[in-house]
Specification:
Number of strands: 0
CATH superfamily: ACP-like
Protein name: Acyl carrier protein
Helix content: 55-70%
Order of helices and strands: HHHH
CATH topology: Non-ribosomal Peptide Synthetase Peptidyl Carrier Protein, Chain A
Distance between the termini: 18 Å
Strand content: under 5%
Structural class: mainly alpha
CATH class: Mainly Alpha
């Protein structure tokens, strides 16, 4: 399972919408349920799902789903 597909599964759970399809270029503006409060829930759920923690600067620098995937993959590589 790819990082993007795992992230999509987490997003579907957090946003309670099985129809969500994430692409690397997806942003919060593309998903009606994705607001500032649910963003925090998403980050916490991703941390739990992937067994990692994100710093405030890392979270603040995320421009789209692709950047989130890249961050997760980088952290997975660094942890290996």
């Amino acid at each position: 399972m790819t990082v993007l597909s795992r992230l999509q599964d987490v997003a579907r759970t957090v946003f309670e919408d099985e129809r969500i399809v994430l692409e690397r270029g997806s942003t919060a503006a593309d998903i009606a349920e994705w607001d500032s409060v649910s963003h925090i829930s998403l980050v916490l759920a991703v941390e739990a799902a992937f067994g990692m923690r994100f710093g405030t600067a890392e979270i603040g620098s995320l421009e789209n789903v692709g950047a989130f995937v890249d961050l997760i993959e980088r952290k997975m590589t660094d942890a290996a």
